[in-house]
Each structure stands twice: as structure tokens, then as C-alpha cells.
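subagent[fold] <- orchestrator: predict structure for attached chain, return C-alpha cells only, no commentary.
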Amino acid sequence: MTVRLLRLIVTWLLASIAAFMISTPAFASIEVSPLKFELSADPGTSLTRTIRLRNTGTGAETLYTSVEDFFASDDSGRPTFIPTDRQVSDAYSLARWINIPDKNLTLSPGETREVVIRIDVPSNAEPGGHYGAALFASDQPVQETVAAVARLGVLVLVEVSGEIRVSGEPTSYNVGFAGADGTLTYPDVFEQFPISFETAFSNSGNTHLSPTGRIEIVDENGQKLTGIGKQTVMNQAGAFIRDEIVDYLPINDVGGDVLPGTTRKFKSPWEGFAYQVLNDNGTKSVFFRTPADYYAEKAEDQKKFLQFWESVKTRTVTKDLTANFFLSYAGKDQQVREFRESKAFSIRYEERYVDYNYFVIAGFALVLVLILVYILYWAPRSRERMRREIMREMARSNDR
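subagent[fold] -> orchestrator:
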């Protein structure tokens, strides 16, 4: 077993222990901004950035500061933090470069505090990405053990200039149904929503990448489906602003990074056909209709009312669809790399449609037949009987 492999195993084990022991729920009353810094620096230089903390609660909050490295522990991209005294490799490390002068601070109710962090990049820093976090804990950190405390973190991603290798590509595109554990299954035909579209991207360079893209869905007639997605709009600080309805499924619309030497899977769920509802507070929320409801409403829009000979019926419909994946990222050389892929899949649903009411039509036809029979057969015979009766009466009158 090589030394490098042994180090990787040890790092993974320590990170797994740390991830198990550290709890990182957000404070209910503390807001932090921004959530992430993405910076570029030259070896031997220093950078300063400001973090804003705000206490929105009714009581004072005391926070204890610390710095740790982080890496992606799995293909979800979720960061796993490693204390500096447990770091076994300096590759991509940043925590030792970060200095936070304020070791603890207390925020009164409604108070906003600015915390300045300084990043000192060593003159012999390795080119490429380095990753750490400024952490704010609800309890004093303990050196001997890792306490289970609530923590807020601001991720810091620094790219050190030099020989930057920008290299990455999608490794798989999948269309499946996500179970409770997130594992995908691949039915022949999808009969329930949401359908999960998964794009795996592997970063083989030495700096982080943020691929983004979209998934367009077209039907068997080549018609692109509209209003199928919900895109998250965020401000420059990384805070949520609103959701927008779009004609595609966004890939990584929140700007997640893929760290060097890792593979990250981006999930794009298709929940149906989107529509907006105005909330009481003036904001809008996005909800989704199933294909059955969506196509039924389209049919109702085209036909405002039923004729007496029509009725609403239900049938099982299978639609053959194609998902077109478009993914790209821009390197530091400003060159954009683009990737495309298509995947075929089918959905099945119960469709409501307008058809003839054959019982009404049959009844109407029967009435018409009876009328024709009466006109063509019974009415003439009745008139003939009446004529003969009149003639007989006239004959009897003449005999008298």
C-alpha cells in the first residue's frame, strides 16, 4: 500500500469521525452573510474580507470563532470539516492561512456585527484551489474532543495563482426515480412524479469548478415542453431571492462547486408542470401539476363547455420523451467547455378527454327512428284507417 493511499484512507477516516461527531444545525436567531467567498490570490499576499453577523432573536447570543479545512465527503458535494490539528495533508488546505482576530463575540438582540478575516497566503503556496471555513459556534471549542455544538460556517475558496489545471467533464447522465435514500431506480415507464435527472461531473484539475446547465424535454413530435422547471434566483451574497418558472430543469442553479479530485452529482427533479400562487404576504410560491391535470386543463381551455352529445372520459396514455442535457463551465482562461447528451424515457398517466356520449347519441338516434317509423309507417296507416272508417260511416248513413 502506497503512502499516498494510506494518507487518503486516514484522512477519510478522520473526516468520517469528525462528520459523525460534529453537529452543524443553523442558529435560529443568527443570520450570516455572505455564505461563501471565492477568491484569487498570489503566493506571499494577504486578503481581507468582512463577514456580517446579525442577531434577529430576543436574547443575546455568544459566538466562538474557529477555522477548519473542508472537503467533499461524498458525491452530494456536502462539505465535511476537519480541524487543523487533525489534518494529515496540506493538499488543498487553507485553514492555517485564515486569521480571525475575534475569538468570541456577543451580539445583543437586533445587533449586526462585522467580523474581518485575514487570509495570509504563504510565498511557497501550492498553485490551485485551497479550501477552508470560518466557523461560529454556540459553545467554546474543546481541544481534546470535538463537542457536538451548533455552528454556522462561511466557506472560503482561494485559488492560488501559478500552474492552474482546469479539467473536468460529465461522467454520467441518468433519468430515474429517487428512493427515500436518494438511490435511483430505472423503471421502463415512469408512472409517478417527481422524476430525478442526475448529472455527475468529475473534476480532474487542481482547482474548483462550477458547472451549470439545463435539461430540456421534448415529446415524440419534437415539441419542447414548457413550464416544467423551477429555477432558484440568488443574490451576490448567495442568499435566496425567489423561484422562477422556466422551460427547462436547471442543473446546479445554486452555483455549487466541484472540488479537485472529486465527483459531484447534481440532481434536477421534474415535479410536473409549474404554476404560481400569490401568497398573503405578496410573495409567490411555485407548485406543480401532474401531466394528467396539466393536459386536462389544456383541453378544458380549448373547449369551454360540453355539447349534450359529449362526455369526459379517461384513458391511459404513454408518452415517449427525450431529455436533452446541456452542461458547461468556464475555466480561468475564459474558455467555455460545453457538453451535450440525450436520454430517452417514457411516462404513463391517466388522461381525461372529451369524447362522444354514445348513450345519448344512441337514445337520440332511437327517437329519430321512432319518429321516422311513425311518419313513414304508422301515420299513413292511421290516415288510411281513418279514411275507411269515414267511408263506412257515410255508407251507413246513405242506407238509412
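orchestrator: received. Logging for downstream: The chain has a mean pLDDT of 83. The radius of gyration is 35 Å.
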